[in-house]
Write a structure and sequence with these properties.
Helix content is about 85%, strand content about 0%. It is built from three helices and no strands.
């Protein structure tokens, strides 16, 4: 079983349970990918993810 097939299946199952679980699985996958890159790149990616999540949160809390 390849890694991408595992994550695709796990994310699909989590999405069926709830959108929040699906998002959590996607962040787990991202965390695993960013673990192997340069820390500066990883920090920038996490900042961008945080900004995007903040925008989504603000949009749905109005």
């Amino acid at each position: 079983m390849s890694g991408s097939a595992y994550w695709n299946r796990e994310i699909r199952k989590a999405d069926q349970r709830s959108p929040k679980e699906g998002a959590t699985k996607r962040l787990d996958r991202l965390r695993g990918v960013l673990r192997g890159v340069d820390p500066a790149v990883a920090n920038r990616a996490w900042r961008e993810v945080g900004d995007a999540v903040q925008k989504i949160t603000e949009r749905y809390t109005r």
